[in-house]
UniProtKB/TrEMBL annotation:
Span of domain Peptidase S33 tripeptidyl aminopeptidase-like C-terminal: 97-162
Name under which the protein is recorded: Peptidase S33 tripeptidyl aminopeptidase-like C-terminal domain-containing protein
Region (Disordered): 204-291
Listed InterPro entries: AB_hydrolase_fold (IPR029058), Pept_S33_TAP-like_C (IPR013595)
Record keyword Transmembrane present: yes
Entry's transmembrane regions: 290-308
Signal peptide location: none
Keywords, in A-Z order: Membrane, Transmembrane, Transmembrane helix
Comp. bias intervals (Pro residues): 211-266
GTP-binding in keyword set: no
SUPFAM superfamilies: alpha/beta-Hydrolases (SSF53474)
């Protein structure tokens, strides 16, 4: 499959879905700038799988075409895209236009007005967002909060899409907040958010597939043993471990001597400590993964479904 700039940009965008991979994105970009795409070759088997698509595409388009594909929405999308970097726009805009083109001929009759109206409720509600979620960003929670009078919005630093899967520290924190809101409605325990920090790391040898790039002025690898079993890069080439070459979420992040932390926790009003509620925009997600997955690798695979779909489309 030929790799051009548009495909590469699109893949990076889609990787923001996956909480377990966001910490490696700076290293991926650094390696690509040096012409090193071995890491992508090692990820492709996971991205492509067996070529099947586990999502109900018909239902997906029925939802999207009923709620998000009006002519007014198309005009608004094109206008908003004018402020996007040209390189990103070239990579992503065509997919949006494809959606609108498909929806012109899709047998949707329009949504029930109740289905597109904001939810209005005073029931205890907790709104959990991931900092890097590219399709349901934290600002969506801010919008929902306007009509949910008894709600609490929390943004998890470093979180991707559906950051409540308890397979890494971020997801474990999000999951515990959900459970605490069930146990004590309206008063979720968000203490774990204040301890979360984003520490960017180099790819493990099983994915990098070669020597670690020379360290920068602020090296990411830790000088002390990590508490988890996640492979960690060394200062010199090391043999690939015997485990299959697929990224596995760590039970805890490896500490770093020179971490690149997220901003300190802040909050105001009903927004509890976490990161400021900012994030990238995008079309509403109609096919997010279920929060009830049975194994970490399934969570990772489901998060990468959009990547696989885009890669297969490019390959064709």
């Amino acid at each position: 499959m030929p790799l051009d700039g548009d495909t590469y940009t699109s893949i990076l965008f889609e990787l923001f879905y996956v909480t377990q991979l966001t910490i490696f994105l700076p290293d991926m970009i650094t390696r690509a700038s040096r012409g090193d795409f071995v890491w992508l070759e090692n990820l492709l088997p996971l991205l492509l799988g067996d070529g099947s698509d586990p999502l109900a595409i018909g239902m997906h388009f029925s939802v999207i075409c009923s709620t998000n594909a009006s002519r007014e929405r198309l005009d608004a999308t094109l206008e908003a895209n004018k402020s996007v970097l040209p390189e990103v726009r070239a990579a992503a805009e065509q997919q949006s236009l494809d959606y609108f083109a498909i929806c012109q001929n899709w047998p949707s009759q329009g949504a029930d007005p109740k289905g597109v109206s904001p939810a209005i409720s005073d029931r205890p509600t907790v709104l959990i967002s991931g900092q890097f979620d590219p399709v349901t960003p934290p600002r969506y929670a801010d919008i929902a909060k306007e009509t949910l009078s008894n709600s609490v919005a929390v943004t998890l630093p470093g979180g991707g899409h559906v950051p409540v899967l308890p397979f890494d520290p971020i997801g474990t924190c999000g999951f515990s907040i959900l459970l605490s809101n069930v146990a004590n409605p309206g008063h979720p325990d968000t203490a774990c958010v204040g301890a979360l920090r984003v520490t960017y790391q180099q790819l493990p040898p099983s994915i990098a597939g070669g020597p670690t790039p020379p360290p920068s002025a602020s090296p990411a690898p830790s000088a002390t043993p990590a508490p988890s079993a996640t492979p960690r890069p060394s200062a010199s080439p090391t043999p690939a471990p015997s485990a299959p070459p697929t990224p596995r979420p760590s039970s805890s992040p490896a500490p770093s001597t020179s971490p690149i932390p997220s901003p300190p926790p802040t909050g105001n009003g009903g927004t509890l400590p976490g990161l400021p509620n900012t994030g990238a925009g995008g079309m509403d997600d109609g096919d997010g993964p279920s929060p009830w997955l049975i194994a970490p690798f399934l969570a990772l695979a489901v998060g990468l479904v959009p990547v696989a779909r885009r890669v297969r489309r490019r390959a064709v």
